[in-house]
Amino acid sequence: MKLRPTYALIAIIFAFGVFPGTALAQYREAFAAYTKGEYATAFRQALKAAETGDLRAQTMLGSLYLTGRGVKKNLERARIWFEKAANKGHREAQFELALMLMAKKEGPVNMDQVRLNFFRAAKQGHVRAQYNMGILNTGIQGLEANWDEAAKWFRKAAEQGNALAQYSLGVLFAEGRGVEKNQIESAKWIGKAAIQGNVDAAVDYGFLSFKGDGLEKDEKVGAKWLLFAANKGNVVAQNRMARLYHKGRGVERDFIEAAKWNILARARGLTNTELDELTTALSEGERGEAKRRAKLWEKQYGSPAKSNLSQ
Fold this sequence. Notes:
Number of domains: 3
Oligomer: single chain
Structural class: mainly alpha
Radius of gyration: 26 Å
Shape: elongated
Helix content: over 70%
CATH topology of the largest domain: Serine Threonine Protein Phosphatase 5, Tetratricopeptide repeat
Number of helices: 17
């Protein structure tokens, strides 16, 4: 909630020449400079505003010290500024402080403080903090698993549109962890995540479409989602696309395309004897075409990305 000063307070402000607008202007200048990549200017303006108590500016200073942008990298100063804003209730500072504490490289990680700051931010509606509260309650980092809590926080973040949370909630519905097992709900949330581009969700939604689990069976739709994931570098989807092209399921049968996807999957460590035999049985020209297509794919799409806690 944004508090508004009373008329009496306004009078005091004018009498003593203290204008909150000055800090606001300084923060706006810092923010504008930051978005332009002018980090030294952003640091100078943010410092002025932060010293007057502007929580957004304090959080920006923490970020600048953390990344070494506009100022020499200093993790201790970053922590101090994040803590100043976090202890005053700034949810982004709470989230960043939790991430910073969890990424600590020397000594034990204080998971109580990590959880506390994620919780504070999550309670204020910070969607990534809500997702991370879900992750913490799955039992990572030696914490005790609480699936009811995990489901609760995943749902909060999922309802705000977080794709990672949507996928996680879908998995919980499929497994019956923290919620009653429900394949229709599982498919719904996994589908929402897939639409947003979550690769793991796309793979699962492809499989669900082939099986008709929780949604109408449609092999063409399943192949579409597996192709999407395969083009994002998912090795399971690449292997499955090779098999689909080999059998002509959901796609038109194409042995060269099958060989191409098998080549790509093998390069990422997933082999299949049947597909290897198919590739060997092709003519020299067909194998050459499959290799050419695989090289073109590598040039266009590259390698897959990884994900974990929401950053």
